[in-house]
Write a structure and sequence with these properties.
The protein is an alpha+beta fold and 218 residues long. Helices cover 56% and strands 17% of the residues. The longest helix is centred in the first third of the chain and has 25 residues.
């Protein structure tokens, strides 16, 4: 088999593995989906091929130098996916997934086919297993809410904490609007939160202006 054809097959394998990983992420409506994971895997694979075979006699060059730069470079993509939105950090899982996808692409580029296949299978399995509704996973699962409310007195704040079964707000910000002080807070609660709960809470507590359920990046 010609060398160039083997290299293209390695890239194709990396794209396929990235595609499989991206499917799970896209089904969960994550920003980094099929195309992102496939391209990251293909790019990392190509860099690894260039690193190992693109300079003639590979014994005269340290292939790990380009590989290490891929690791550093992919960190910028991961950092760009981590957002601080509404006083909450989002995207850590997606950034970690992109980082591992790059490593899988590099393994394919280095010719470590079984390692690349095994790592991709483990990554997809981990993502799927941790979404199974088992008690061991559910115990640490919190619903994250963005809450905007007015608090004329301490009783209102205490009632809100009792409503969501919390001791303290994760983040709290106060802003003056005219003659009133309006608070925005992040709430992490173990309570089951659905549209009916939100509607009833807003109707029952007139000082609650809005409740928004935030997406946990898992």
């Amino acid at each position: 088999m010609p060398e160039w054809l083997e290299y293209l097959l390695r890239i194709l394998m990396a794209v396929g593995l990235g595609f499989v990983i991206g499917i799970e992420r896209q089904l969960r409506l994550k920003v980094a989906g099929i195309r992102t994971h496939a391209l990251v895997a293909a790019g990392a694979c190509l860099f690894m091929i260039i690193s190992k075979y693109g300079f003639g006699d590979s014994t005269q060059f340290d292939a790990s130098r380009i590989a290490s730069q891929v690791v550093s470079g992919i960190s910028f993509i991961g950092a760009g996916m981590i957002l601080h939105r509404q006083q909450v950090v989002h995207g850590l899982t997606s950034a970690a997934g992109i980082w591992l996808t790059a490593a899988i692409g590099m393994a394919a580029g280095a010719g470590l086919y079984y390692v690349a296949l095994g790592a991709a299978a483990i990554m997809v399995m981990v993502q799927l297993v941790f979404h199974i509704p088992l008690p061991i996973f559910m115990e640490k699962h919190y619903n994250e809410l963005k809450l905007i409310f007015k608090s004329p007195n301490e009783d209102c704040t205490r009632a809100i904490k009792q409503l969501f079964d919390i001791k303290n707000f994760t983040a709290l910000k106060a802003e003056r609007q005219g003659e009133e002080i309006v608070y925005s807070a992040v709430v992490n609660t173990k309570k089951q939160i659905d549209s009916e709960f939100i509607r009833n809470a807003v109707n029952e507590y007139p000082y609650i202006i809005s409740i928004e359920k935030l997406e946990n990046d898992r």
